[in-house]
Amino acid sequence: MSTLSTSSAQELHPSPSARTAGGRMVVAGPMEPTYDTVLTHEALDFLATLHAEFLTERRRLLTERGPRNDAIARGDLPSHREDTRHIREDADWRAIGHAGASGLSRRRVEITGAPDGRTAVNALNSDADSWLADFEDAMSPTWSNVVLGQVNLRAAVRSRLKHVTRVGKYYEQRASRRAGAQQPTIVVRPRGLHMPEAHLRYVDRNGSETSAAASLVDFALYFFHNAEELAARGSGIYFCIPKVESAAEARWWNRLFLRAQELLGLEPGTLRATVLIETLSAAIEMEEIVWELREHCAGLHAGRWDYIFSMTKAFRHDRSFLLPDRKEITMELPFLESYAQRIIDVSHRRGIHALGGMATAFPDREDPELTAVAQQGVREDKEREAAQGFDGTWVAHPNLIPVAREAFDAVLGDADHQIERIPATNGTGENGRITSADLLSRDGLPTPEDLREHVSEDGVRTNIRACIAYLDAWLSGKGALKVDHLVEDVSSVEISRAQIWQWIRRGVKMDNGRVLTTVLVDRYVAEELAITSRNPLDRFCESAELLRWGALGDELPDSFTVEAYQRFMVDRAARMPYPFAA
């Protein structure tokens, strides 16, 4: 448990708290200027109500993940459930989709980024159709980032977001540059079910205290402060739900959405949600997930790097599932092609958007040649997605918006989407439908004997650099970082460390003839640190510690974020003189 306590927080820093019949919320982090605009007594009361009603079920759902994932790792391959066959075989039902949801019909290009001031203004001033305000993979969950993200969104919804950097550069939200276009539609991505928020504490009616659920915090604060305002402006309130692993978890989110709308007196369906398909279990239960969320579901999103991490983690002990260097992993691999086809097939048959994967290339204004290469890679990726049948995609940099839009314009023309199109699939099921066996295909993967040609020392070092550079940024409060001309986020670290762990366990021989071992990786980590530019405030030592924990241990940890958050953002902060930065 965190060493932050509600008693010490109240003594040292007066903070708002809220009480409901089921319990109360207490702010255990510092209250800085503007925080009180979102951490109001009314908002905390709303948050406490949701904790009282949904926290126990969240814990149960998280407990169920372990045995299910352990069974897959032991070789019990997942398949479509017999008890939900009637849902998959009923061709008549549809989800609510984008009907009546202003700003959600056209989602051709979505830009993503953390809700910090500069990123938010740049996204809202861009030519994107929507902005994914990301509290999850693209945001470092420091206390200030969490609260200021909500402050920024509250201002953005009311079209009055401004930001001044420490060096005095001024940013202000304005109309889109694209003639006749509206401001990008805001879609908020809360943190996943697994993450805690230690700077807010829930105290139940018996006095038992626990960290708040980060997913409830991000959802509730944005919903409470903005749902009615957006409805008054003729819009709904939109979310993108990450890290869903089962239909039961989707049911939890749907019940949460219904209850939140009821508490504020809003009509069901005012809220719409797009679901990120990021895990193997979610890909297997994709249709059931849409069914459970059919009152609110507007689309499915391909979270491909997290999905690759999920597959690597699921088959970490399987010698037939070994991935090559990250740069060689493409969506043309059969198991990833099946994943993409299934997202499109399920989405369109159920009347919702299918949205493609992230373009992580990062243009460099000082290197036109490199920028041209990056843009060409993105163009080819988006042309493939549009031709496959996706209705839109997402990018991480404003300069990539025109490239992605061009690719989709060429296929969609004047249409907002291509939901009515159900492309042929090349699966092994009836009429070519994608089956669980297709999602688990090893076709196209290198064999253990051939892996030397596909795992290089440079690839291992690239993974190490991505991890230590990104973790340094993440621990310092920055959630996305350019490394080797790519935008890296949490998913980059997860797949990089999982690959290293698996390669070591499989005794992979690299292109230089050396067998990858724990000792050798540890040496590479030390060498990369030795050539890294350092400063007195950097977090590279902690980054290396986290990498060793996440990639060199006997077991592969499920996620680095909870461990890193608790150890370095909460416990470390609690040992510092109050107030603290995190």
TrEMBL record:
GO biological process: glyoxylate cycle; tricarboxylic acid cycle
The reaction(s) this protein catalyses: glyoxylate + acetyl-CoA + H2O = (S)-malate + CoA + H(+)
Domain of life the protein comes from: Bacteria
Name assigned to this protein: Malate synthase
EC number: 2.3.3.9
Protein source organism: Brevibacterium yomogidense
Transmembrane segments: none
Keywords assigned by UniProt, alphabetized: Acyltransferase, Glyoxylate bypass, Transferase, Tricarboxylic acid cycle
Domain Malate synthase TIM barrel: 185-425
Pfam families (alphabetical): MS_C, MS_N, MS_TIM-barrel
